[in-house]
Structures are given as structure tokens and as C-alpha cells.
Design goal:
mainly beta; six-stranded antiparallel sheet; disordered N terminus
Length: 411
């Protein structure tokens, strides 16, 4: 079983804790990403022929059909080498006919955790493309990504294909044989990690305010909502150079598969990919001693927070990435609050917190149940109006059966 499952945070956590995002437009996308809701008026978004819509809130989430009859909401995660299903979702739909065996699984958390494997064969469809895998990994996924997700699928579905991901308009499209890549896309030559050709690494350059620069290979991870996570080996180099002297320590109760995580949040003065420069980008540096963020065979992970600023073509056959800046490329950094929320059915759970940050000083704690943010509940139809986040959040926190109001200023 591969150890490379990367689910670092959650959609809401990305907005609060990670940095750049185009949430202000895409948070209004309904469950069917081909329809956008604006002030209660429905506007149909015309997608290209053969396009498969997805919803995007720092995770790429598709409507998937499992075994021809069971609909599921699933994240596309290049960190997953197998189908992965949430344990509650599996228990409801498949447990009666399942045959599970135990396994230990690691990922972006700082350790290993017990999971189950069902090796009875799994067929699934995304759009009009179908795929079959022998086994599915079953574990409590919703504690990481929230109640609106049933599972994830990964690179096996995409192997050998060229695929366009349009983050701005919310769709995926498989390129036809012989289809040309437009001239305004820039090519990024990547490499496979190891001989199994299961994971892809791409070159990036990261510059910091003191003039120190890192040029390294970063693991592609579309299951990661953040922009960039440096592994603990790379973080130690930054610490030795004094780059982390003013960094804030961010602690996750659940940092991914494998459990908790600790990171240092800092701002890179510039990230350069394919000749394109992103300025003043918030990134994090892991302190993990185990898991994918302690693996020194690459410098760190690169996630959706970077790719959301581009139109992207992934060539999963060669391995090459093509990038073209989209309308969100120059979007300003969102306000940063140092809080990670996991979205549950009717509330949010505080999963991560910046130590000594404004939220912690105001009295917020990891594990707090948030009933409303700026008067808006998780179940409200106008929840999208939270974006872009203002400079102050008013949180209605349930404590000991009572609502406590906590106000948090941006960092």
C-alpha cells in the first residue's frame, strides 16, 4: 500500500489558513458545476463539448458513479494510488457484501493509522469515462475533508491520458488523440518519482524576502488545497538560514491521513513556475517526522492553491504539464486568519489553529464547534456570501450547551 495519500486540510481550512484562492467566484458554484447561482438567479454556464463539470473549493470534487448504481461525491487526488472511500459511506452502501482486511496507512499526517481494504473489485465512472480497480481503501475520510465528501480517486483513473483542468470555470476535459496544445500554454517538463511511475514531481523556484532561494522538485498533489508545503528536511534548511525566525506555528488536530500535523506558516516573496511568477504567496513548512511531509526524495508538495491560477493540461502519459494564466492569476491574497475549519453537515469544527495568533488570543480552541460565521450557518443558502472573507470574523461557538461569540481580526 502506497504511503502517498495527501489530504492536508479541508476546503474551508484552505481559505482561512493557506493563502491565495479564487473562492470569491467559485464558492457560488452549485452542486452541478455547470450551473452558477448568483443572487437567486440561475445562470447556465456553457461548457465545452465532452467537458465533465466539477465543483471547486480548493478541492476538485466530481460526481462519480460507483458500481453502476451508487452516486458519490469524490475528490480527484493525484496522491491516491487506489480508490478511497469514507468508512460511513462504505458502511451504508457496501458493507453487507464487503470483505475487509486491516492495513496501516500513512499520508500527510505525522504517523500511521489503521484502515481497511476491500479487494472485491471496484468499477466507477467519471463523466463518460469508466475505470476498474481491484481494491478500495476504507477509512474515516470525513474527519479530514468534511461531511460533503464520500471518497477520492487518483492517478490510476488518469494514466496514459491528456486532461485539461479548467479551475476558473470548473470543468475537466479529456483531449482527443492528436489534439494540439494552444501556443499560449507554457510547457513544464516533469519527472516520475521512482520507477513505478505512480507520482509526478515538477520543478519550482521559491524566493524569500532575505534573498534566499530554493530550487527543487515538488510532488504534484491535487488532493492538497494549499499552494505549497515544504517537507521537514527543506524546512530545516530554511530554519538554519533564519528564514523561519518570524514564522507562525500552526497545529492541526487532523493534518491528513496519519493524524496530527505541525507546520510553520510563512510568506514566500515569489514562486516561479514555467516562467510565471506569483508574488507574496503564503506557504507552510512541515515539522512532521513521519509521513509524506518527512520524505526527503522531493522538496515538498505543490497543490491546488498554485494550479487554480492557471488553465492546466496534465499529460499523464509523457509526464508534462502545460500552464496558461487564467483570469484569477493576479488575484490578491485573501485575508489570513490562522484558523482551519472542517465543514460538517450543519456546523464547522476548528481543526487547526495558529499558536499565538489573533484567533487563539480571542479564545478560540481546536475542537470548537462553530455554529455560524458572521451570522451565516453552514446550511444557509447564502453561505457563499462569506467570500471573500472580510477583515473580521464573528464566530458563534457552542460551548457547554451555550453560544459564545468570538471576534477574530485578520493576521
Amino acid at each position: 500500500m502506497s504511503r502517498h495519500y495527501h489530504l492536508l486540510a479541508v476546503a474551508f481550512a484552505a481559505i482561512m489558513a493557506m493563502g491565495c484562492s479564487n473562492e470569491r467566484k467559485d464558492a457560488a458554484v452549485a452542486e452541478n458545476a455547470a450551473v452558477t447561482v448568483v443572487n437567486k438567479d440561475t445562470v447556465v454556464k456553457k461548457l465545452p463539448a465532452e467537458a465533465v463539470p466539477f465543483s471547486y473549493t480548493r478541492h476538485i470534487c466530481f460526481d462519480v458513479m460507483l458500481r453502476d448504481s451508487v452516486p458519490a461525491r469524490m475528490i480527484f487526488d493525484t496522491g491516491a494510488n487506489n480508490l478511497l472511500l469514507d468508512s460511513a459511506f462504505y458502511a451504508y452502501h457496501f458493507a453487507a457484501n464487503g470483505n475487509l482486511r486491516k492495513a496501516m496507512l500513512g499520508g500527510a499526517g505525522n504517523g500511521m493509522e489503521m484502515a481497511n481494504i476491500d479487494a472485491s473489485g471496484w468499477s466507477y465512472c467519471v463523466g463518460n469515462k469508466s475505470h476498474t480497480e481491484q481494491m478500495a481503501v476504507v477509512l474515516n475520510l470525513r474527519k479530514i475533508v468534511g461531511d460533503n465528501v464520500d471518497g477520492l480517486f487518483g492517478l490510476p483513473f488518469m494514466q496514459g491520458k491528456r486532461v485539461e483542468f479548467n479551475y476558473a470555470d470548473g470543468y475537466m476535459r479529456f483531449l482527443t488523440a492528436g489534439e494540439e496544445i494552444a501556443n499560449d500554454f507554457l510547457r513544464v517538463d516533469c519527472k516520475w518519482l521512482g520507477n513505478k511511475k505512480e507520482r509526478i514531481i515538477l520543478p519550482l523556484s521559491i524566493a524569500f524576502a532575505d534573498g534566499y532561494t530554493i530550487n527543487g522538485d515538488f510532488l504534484l498533489d491535487t488532493g492538497m488545497p494549499g499552494t505549497l508545503s515544504l517537507n521537514s528536511t527543506t524546512a530545516k534548511k530554511l530554519k538554519a538560514k533564519g528564514v523561519l525566525d518570524d514564522a507562525g506555528k500552526f497545529v492541526y488536530t487532523v493534518g491528513g491521513i496519519g493524524g496530527s500535523a505541525v507546520q510553520n506558516d510563512i510568506c514566500a516573496s515569489q514562486i516561479t513556475v514555467a516562467g510565471h511568477a506569483l508574488n507574496d504567496v503564503r506557504i507552510n513548512c512541515s515539522e512532521n517526522s513521519q509521513g509524506s511531509l518527512a520524505d526527503d526524495s522531493y522538496a515538498g508538495l505543490v497543490g491546488n492553491g498554485l494550479f487554480e491560477r492557471f488553465d492546466v493540461v496534465f499529460d499523464f502519459a509523457e509526464w508534462v504539464i502545460y500552464l496558461r494564466p487564467n483570469r484569477n492569476f493576479a488575484a490578491p491574497q485573501p485575508n489570513y486568519f490562522g484558523i482551519a475549519f472542517t465543514p460538517m453537515a450543519d456546523h464547522w469544527i476548528v481543526n487547526g489553529l495558529l499558536e499565538g495568533g489573533n484567533a487563539a488570543k480571542a479564545g478560540l480552541r481546536r475542537g470548537d464547534r462553530i455554529e455560524a460565521i458572521n451570522g451565516i450557518r453552514a446550511t444557509d443558502s447564502n453561505a457563499s456570501s462569506l467570500y471573500p472573507l472580510p477583515e473580521k470574523l464573528t464566530l458563534a461557538v457552542m460551548r457547554d450547551g451555550k453560544i459564545v461569540e468570538i471576534s477574530v481580526q485578520k493576521e
